[in-house]
Amino acid sequence: MRRLVVTVCPREPGVVVLPVERGGRPRRLDAVAVLAALERLVTKRKLGARVEFREGCAGGCGAEGPNVDVTIYPAAPSGERPDHVAVGWKTYVYSLPTLDCLATVIDENLGDPPAPRRRRAR
């Protein structure tokens, strides 16, 4: 399991237009709205113990964002303090518009296997 620290700079200008979740309606999101939408998504999915948010430089200050930086850490074993040595990272500098939805930032970095599909009873 992984733990994520997601950084978004609320001062970056620019907007991105994409759905927050797959199948949703595209929305105009500036950096502040990207951060708020990701925080709501993590709360809705009850991932607060595994995903932390920070405001700070996410790279790409030379042009319009918004930009997102994700630092990936191993999840701490139960009862132990979390490790602060990153095992990976991913930046979404000028690339958020290429995603199918904003939730991809969380989904592709947590690295959890997809939920098993249930077979329909016949």
Give an overview of the whole structure.
- Helices cover 17% and strands 25% of the residues.
- It is an alpha+beta fold and 122 residues long.
- The protein has one domain (2-110).
- The longest helix is centred in the first third of the chain and has 14 residues, at 31-44.
Measure the end-to-end span.
35 Å
- How can the largest sheet be summarized? 4 strands, mixed
Helices and strands, in order, run as EEEHEEEH
Mean pLDDT: 88
| Number of spatially distinct domains | 1
Shape: globular
How many distinct helices? 2
Uncertain stretches? none
Strand coverage percent: 15-25%
Binned, the helix content reads 10-25%
Number of strands: 6
**Class derived from helix and strand content:** alpha+beta
Computed CA radius of gyration, to the nearest angstrom = 15 Å
Strand order, largest beta sheet: 4-1-5-6
Sum up the structure in keywords.
122 residues, alpha+beta, 25% strand, two-stranded antiparallel ribbon
Topology:
Layout: E1 2-8, E2 16-18, E3 27-29, H1 31-44, E4 51-55, E5 68-74, E6 88-92, H2 104-110
Parallel strand pairs: 1-4
Antiparallel strand pairs: 1-5, 2-3, 5-6
Concise summary:
With 122 residues, this protein is of the alpha+beta class. The chain has helices at 31-44, 104-110, and strands spanning 2-8, 16-18, 27-29, 51-55, 68-74, 88-92.
